[in-house]
Amino acid sequence: MLMSMTGFGKATAETKTHRITVEIKSLNSKQLDLSVRLPYIFRESELEVRSIVGHVIERGKADLLVTCESLPGVSSATVSEINIDVMRRYKAQIEAAAAELGTPVPDDLFRVLMTLPEAVRNAAPEAEAGEVEVLYSVVRSAVEGLMAHRRTEGTALENFFRPRIGAIADLLAQIEPYEQERVPRIRQRLEDALAKIPALEIDKGRLEQEMIFYIEKLDVNEEKQRLAKHLSYFLETMDAPTPGQGKKLGFIAQEMGREINTLGSKSNHAGMQAIVVKMKDLLEQIKEQVLNVM
Asked: N or C: which end of the chain has fewer CB within 10 A?
């Protein structure tokens, strides 16, 4: 069973005063890269939210957004506080400056003080009783939605990989007829080339040895066997019951690429090279989508 790193989840719940909405989306990434944006009232809950999300999604670049809206009829105004200590220091400085400059202290000094920075501050809003637990519950629901989406995308990836792995296996079987005619053709070509050299004395025994050595270097049986095993191992890994096969599938695809490249370099036959090109095209499609597997 495959699971994609791409997905989206959303969940909403209401308390007595607020509507809490959590949205989370994820894309492919080598490691877990989690971005969390919380309203100020939940600022102290970020670590727990990260723990809830990270424990489940494991890999991927994920963005989580939490919004908290006041319900209709519920006041959302924050309480302002007058910072008397700051105003006291401002007043002393203004009076000292007035005495130093020989100017009168403003008659509307209090109004002036109220307009200075930090003289009035908004009290930090706090979450109502039980709202943090509601937040955690909504986060879990959104993550469940994300994972359900990931499983759906994983099924689509399975349906993408299987026919392409099968097509590479079919192409591998098509190499055999070319391989049977390739060795006699190479042998005849070498003998014809030697025959064109005048007054050349050839040691038939030595020539036969060199022929065998050269043809063995072009033998592709080992590459075919290893590629067939890699194809089977890819499907076997893909069908594992526990998600998280992305990295392993990537490694297997790399090994498949090595064997296909070696087949191409050893082929020495136009028909075989055409088959290798088709294999490479299919493998590139597989590699591109393997990056999305968790």
From this structure: N
The domain limits of the chain are 7-75+130-149, 80-122, 153-290
Over the chain (294 residues), the average pLDDT of each successive run of 10 is 93 90 94 92 91 92 92 64 87 90 88 85 67 94 96 95 96 84 68 66 64 66 93 94 89 96 83 92 96 92
Query: Do the bridges between strand 120-122 and strand 32-37 make them parallel or antiparallel, or are there none, so unpaired?
Result: unpaired
Helices (H) and strands (E) in the chain, counts: 8, 6
The residue with tokens 């963005």 is 63
CB atoms within 10 A of CB 53: 22
CATH 3.40.50.1450 fits 7-75+130-149, yes or no: no
3-state percent helix, strand, coil for the chain, nearest multiple of 5 = 60, 15, 25
